[in-house]
Write a structure and sequence with these properties.
Elements lengths: L21 H29 L9 H8 L2 H29 L3 H27 L13 H8 L2
């Protein structure tokens, strides 16, 4: 008895679900966020490594100076959000491709999104609540004491 293998180019009947096509929007998000991340990351690297003293200039003062301006706060937060959602969506795709058990797949996808959400909230709080003046009594850095006294 011979069995025929269907022609791979033959159209097959697909059942169209109602509602938004989340896979399509996930695919589009990956392309758009990838392009934006390239711009954001190379801008981040250029400012941190090429301008000023380069790698030797990155210290607490450099980070405090960057986080003192809303432009760099938003730059870093947008980069953080895009990167974490992009990575979680990529991991979701890998889980969907390789995990065959439905319950395991659902648990892993939920764990991915919950961990991404936790890191997004934590990172956003760090960027927007960063205060270089906490604990300056023990600091021996003169510029920090002067900056915090001027507040």
């Amino acid at each position: 008895m011979a069995t025929a293998i269907a022609d791979p180019r033959a159209p097959r009947a697909t059942v169209r679900r109602s509602g938004p096509n989340l896979e399509k929007w996930g695919w589009i998000y990956m392309r758009v966020s990838g392009v934006l991340l390239v711009v954001l990351i190379f801008g981040h690297l250029f400012v941190n490594l090429m301008l000023g003293e380069g790698i030797h200039g990155i210290d607490f003062a450099f980070v405090a100076g960057k986080f003192a301006t809303p432009f760099w706060q938003w730059w870093d937060v947008i980069m953080l959000w895009l990167a974490l959602i992009h990575g979680a969506n990529g991991m979701r795709t890998i889980v969907n491709d390789y995990v065959t058990h439905q319950t395991t797949r659902r648990v892993l996808v939920w764990a991915l999104w919950l961990s991404a959400a936790f890191l997004i909230v934590l990172g956003t709080l760090v960027v927007f609540t960063f205060d270089p003046c906490i604990g300056i009594e023990t600091s021996t850095t003169d510029w920090l004491i002067e900056m915090c006294a001027a507040r």
